[in-house]
Amino acid sequence: MSQMHKVAVITGASRGIGAELVSAYRKLDYAVVAAARSAAEFDDPQVLAVPVDVAAPGAGRQLIDAALDRFGRVDTLINNAGIFIAKPFTDYTDEDYEAVTGVNLRGFFEVSRSALAAMLSRDGGGHIVNVSTSLVDHAYSQIPAALASLTKGGLNAVTKELAIEYASRGIRVNTVALGTISTPMHDPSTHDMLAALHPLGRIGEIADVVDAVMYLENAPFVTGEILHVDGGQSAGH
């Protein structure tokens, strides 16, 4: 393919937000590398499916090497893969800790490190978007989520650090911090209860998240931003 085509790497791309982001980036005429543990092949030759567990050592290099081998470059990385387990803090198990930190932190580290190296290997900069949660800023007594706060809070912090570290190289780093979004992980029977968590009185839609990511993609003067897509949840309740 032409080296002028931009390339987006999206983790957690097999369903929900990730799958819709694949479509959104294709509409921007990006080639897309769609990563997931159960990644299925696409009919579109400009979408490469890579089955990978981002928490595994070496997964980042494997994924980014696949992107470079197929498309020759990486312009955008969307760290969408994530795990959320809601439990009282003392009920968390070692297995819970390993699962959540493995995907949310090591997965970010694995893929972002290799993607940044690819971006730095050529002129033109790049863009990283992380997916976080508004629970980091606005804890809710009915949703005990210490591991989410521990890991996603780390992503919020490193977003600002990397944005400053690489600003002079033209690489932007941003985060979308989400409220509750209508994805396959939420049973529809819980939607009314979840809607009440947001001052706007509704659950978020996947399109709300995609629109926010597209804004960041097309906002070259925005970096180090934690963009809340949460119906006002982080502002108060």
TrEMBL record:
Protein name: 3-oxoacyl-ACP reductase
Entry-linked Pfam families: adh_short_C2
Alphabetized UniProt keyword annotations: Oxidoreductase
GO BP terms in the entry: fatty acid elongation
GO terms assigned for molecular function: oxidoreductase activity, acting on the CH-OH group of donors, NAD or NADP as acceptor
Lineage summary: Bacteria, Bacillati, Actinomycetota, Actinomycetes, Mycobacteriales
Coiled coil segments of this chain: none
Protein family according to the UniProt entry: Belongs to the short-chain dehydrogenases/reductases (SDR) family.
SUPFAM superfamilies with a match to the protein in the record: NAD(P)-binding Rossmann-fold domains
Entry superkingdom: Bacteria
InterPro entries membership: NAD(P)-bd_dom_sf, SDR_fam
PANTHER family: BLL7886 PROTEIN (PTHR42760:SF135), SHORT-CHAIN DEHYDROGENASES/REDUCTASES FAMILY MEMBER (PTHR42760)
